[in-house]
Every structure is written in C-alpha cells, then in structure tokens.
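Quick check before the chapter quiz. The format below is the same one you will see on the exam, so make sure you can read both the input and the output lines.
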Amino acid sequence: MELGMVGLGKMGANMTVRLVRGGHRVVGFARTPSVVDAVVQQGATGSTSLADMVRQLAPPRVVWLMIPSGAPVDQTLDQLRPLLAPGDLIVDGGNSYYRDTLRRSTLVTSWGFRYVDVGTSGGIWGLAGGYSMMVGGDPADVERVRPILETLAPGPQQGWGRMGSVGSGHFVKMVHNGIEYGLMQAYAEGFAVLQAKTDFALDLHQVAEVWRYGSVIRSWLLELTEDALAENPTLKGIEPWVVDSGEGRWTVTEAMDLNIPAPVITLALQQRLRSRETDPFTERLLAMLRNKFGGHEVKTES
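Here is the expected output.
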C-alpha cells in the first residue's frame, strides 16, 4: 500500500521508516528538505511540495498528517483541497482536539474527500515497539487503511482499534493523555518523598529498578523514570518547568462539561501550570494576608 506522509518530525519520520520496512511505499513531505532527505535514505520517496507528493500518489490516495494541532492542520487541509480528488482519504494522526476534528470532517466531506482521525501514542519509541492507535471514522474508511494500522501497531491485532465514528479516536487519545498527566505526577511526587527522606540515603535509581519487576505500579513510565535517574540521579541542571501540549486541559474541560469529577488529572494540570510561575504572585499575596490578619512574619527577598 502507498500513502503520503505530511510532517516528518521525530514521530512522523519513525512512522515512515516503520511503514517502509513493512513493505509500504511512502511519499514524504516536510517543509525542511534535509528532513525529507533523511527519510529518503531510509527507503521512503521524497517530495518537494504538497503538490509534488500528491502527484506521485496513485488515486484513490491516502494522505496521513503528522503535524501540530490547531491552525497548521487547517492550513494544510486548505492547501490539499485543490490537489486531491473525490474519494481520496485524509488521516489526521496528530493530537488534534476532537471538536476540531468533527468540524474538519464535515468540511472535508463536503469537498468530496474522506476523513479519519487516529490518536497516536508511542512517541519516539514507536519505531521499535509499535504505536498505540485509537481510530475514529467510518468502518469502510478504517478498513481501507487497515494495512497501515497493522504495520504501525505492535502487532496486527494489538495496540490499535476503531473507537467509533469520526472524532472518537482523538477523543480517546485526549483522555489517554489526561491519564498520563496523573500517572506522571504520582511518580514524581512519590520519588520526591523518597528523595526527601535523607535518613535512609535511598538510591532512587535502585528503587525504580526494583519496582519495575513484579510491582503493582510497574509501567513503561516507571522504566523511563529509571532511565532518567540512571542518567542524572540528582536531576542536577534540570529546570523545574513542565509544559503541557493541551490534551490535559481539554480532558479537564470535557470532564466539567460532562459533570465528571477528575481531581487527579485536574491537579496534575495545575501543577504543570504552577511549575512555570517564575514570580508567583499567589504565594506573595498569601504571605501578606497572613501578616495582615495575624501579624505573621513575612520573609523579604534579599
């Protein structure tokens, strides 16, 4: 099977290589020529523009987008509109907000094209271990890209599945990432408690290594924790600044809309926001309020 891959960042490039190794023909496009050259060296076919990529694909075409969510997706769809033909299928494999996916699906369908959303998890490790893919779309459209999904997944019958209609794949991936926020926060807090108990002089890397086998809390995230602590046991030089890419916010918003309490995910998101405060006004005001009502000491900056 052949397809066009738009976006050759780390995940997009690794997915391309996995598909090529699986016997598929992939025509790749990215704005940076050197990035295209890199996947060509791995067996993919390169292209110099979206038009060039589409020209090299036999209809009915499949075009897979691995680009940042938001405006870049809309802009790419606008650019593809005059290039594609009725019956061509567009797959959004990025982390788009599912409400945007619903809107885009309606628009793309009105142009005569088909639309499938694939929430993709696996990061840079997916090349070796395969990707977890949560797929939304018409059953016939999903069946059409089954060979691609089976190649990208850990196994033909493992790690991927049709979640439901268009938008469901990105919705499930959104919640997946919200859960990820909570798990990461729990590991970080637990190891902070261990690190603070200086009486025992604990080796945090050893703790993580022990927990990896047979423990109730063993997981891939714990394996990555062990890797990180092996490389830098004290995390010296790492700034406590944690970004969020949006999925946690969307999950919290959706939970509120559905009247579902999600305190762990919500607090994990709040902690990420707190980590980025370089001049925390909140705590300054709290200190002043305690001074005003109780005369408590206020520490001043030197």
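If your answer matched, good. Strands lie at 2-6, 25-29, 45-46, 62-65, 89-92, 114-121, 132-136, 160-164.
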